[in-house]
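[job 0412] stage=complex_fold ligand=magnesium ion status=START
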Amino acid sequence: MADVLALERICKSYNVGTPVETEVLHGIDLTMRAGDFVAIMGPSGSGKSTLLNIVGLLDRPTSGRLAIAGVDATDLPDAEITRLRGHAIGFVFQYHHLISAFTALENVMMPMLVDRGRATAAMEQRAADLLALVGLSRWKDNKATAMSGGQQQRVAIARALAMNPALVLADEPTGNLDTASAEAAFALMRRINREQATSFLLVTHNLELARRCDRIVEVVDGRIAAPAP
Amino acid sequence: MKRWLPFEWIAALRFLAEGRLQTGFILVGIAIGVGVIVFMSALLVGLQANFVRRVLTSQPHIQLLPPEAVARSLRTEPGVIEAATVQRPTQRVLSVDQWQMIRTEVAARPDVAVVAPTATGSALAVRGDASRSIGMSGVEPATYFSIVRVPDFIVAGEPRLDSDDILVGTELAKDLGAAVGDKISVGAAAGGRRILTIRGIFDMGNKGVNERTTFVALRTAQSLLNLIGGVTTIDVTVRDIYAAETIAQDIGRIAPVEAASWIGTNAQFFTAVRAQQLSNTLIRLFVGLSVAFGIAAVLVVSVIQRSKEIGILRAMGTRRGQILRIFLLQGAVLGFLGSLVGSSLGAGALLAWHAYARLPDGTEFFPISFDPALFVIATLVATLTGVAAAAAPALRAANMDPVEAIRG
Ligand SMILES: Nc1ncnc2c1ncn2[C@@H]1O[C@H](COP(=O)(O)OP(=O)(O)O)[C@@H](O)[C@H]1O
Ligand SMILES: [Mg+2]
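[job 0412] stage=complex_fold status=DONE, emitting structure tokens
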């Protein structure tokens, strides 16, 4: 089976062609197999978010190759990139998780709606199932703003799973939650990983949570450091 | 979530609904703008239509008259004038030369609808002690009544004109104390005098007309006016009333008559209308522009406020084109809803104006007409203006870098 993620010598520079051009990532190699649950750790400003954005096809590397779910995305045109992103990748962010004009259920439906253009009964059913999976069936008709941070993050996790992506990316998903909510969100992702073999790549500052991942990748100054214990 | 609505529509409507206050304020702004435009345009159109209707129910599109006997100064050599003053020759009741031929020629034109020869002059109507000076029009009912729709204005009797019949206005009937079937004596300045029977009484909605205007058979008028076989004017209606002036000039060139179109006769009115139209167009343009900038401003703010949500939508696979459409649609919906409200406001203002603005005697200035086309066009233009105004904000949203948006 193809790797879920394959990065080869990924470099990223900001402000290319200006006097303040700076290279932030200096040749990252990283591979993930289907079902991997990987934590990225590292000090602030070391390039973790930059790396995650490149993996998530939100940004392009300055050089190097990347393949997602067996598709070489290095030279794909923008429209194809957008499509691949919608189908192969789910996102969970630290802040501003949900779209406030929609209910919890609608937020979970959103990636499918975006893809297919019109709502269907099947979509609604899948979204309801996902909300049940994250334990929020009762809140499905709540607007995002009427939920706690922990609940919102669990809706965001359900949403990330909507298109049944090969890889879920989470940038400090628990960074803004209290301990209990953080634990709940992490446990949920780990459980989904075990039950559905969805791969997760998450950035975290929480060593205790990171230890419960399959692997920890340490990024320091735009390079992957020696593997942690 | 509506199953039949496309994603872009759902998002656009939800975004507008969520930004209730902004949406509400800009809708009021658009509505006021559209309302003003609708009100002004309807008023101007109504004024013009009313004027045209009033003029054309009592006036042919073109009148062919005998050329005025033009006075010339006497001169023997160039530069030497014998008589210092030039006097207009007295204007007798003149007949149109070769009117039968002219009539046939003019009637043959494809742009002419009806040709009606008339013999017109003034006379004195007498009944018992009462006498009134009147204008007497001798007409052929068959042709003339399709130009000036006298039968439509008959309030008593019938619009029939045999050789001893006369149709009079309500005021004249009252002044003479006469009713349908009564006889009056009519004497023309030219000498003739006859006893005519009132066949019908009409009300043209104008006191002066009802007082003075009368209709008799063409032959009757000819004999009273001492104009045997002649006519004083040939009245013409054309198919396109706004082409009347050109057609009149055309006829004037080929026939020995003076051709006066209703446009030429009412030149002042048309000059006023044109000035009004110009200022109306300018006002429309500037109101439209300020509405457009209002919509653009609201949407720019909305794009900035929603940049994180736009970033998240892009992250979950939303294409640039979809984002673009979400915001263009918001502009369209604002323009559309605003113009619906505005049209109602304009219509309401029109009704209110109609109810309160009256002539001193309580009658309306003119009947207002609600032209559905005006509202359809206003709505269409406002919707398109909304889309155009949304272009810049929508492009900005579509070209937003999701990384920047999410990090921000
Ligand atoms: N758009 C950008 N333009 C310039 N520099 C940037 C930009 N985004 C991030 N950086 C810089 O790149 C480095 C890595 O940032 P980031 O990937 O956000 O680190 P981390 O997520 O590990 O804290 C930082 O020094 C940051 O200032
Ligand atoms: Mg970061």
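The pocket of magnesium ion (ligand 2) is lined by residues A 48-49 (CB under 6 Å).
[job 0412] exit 0
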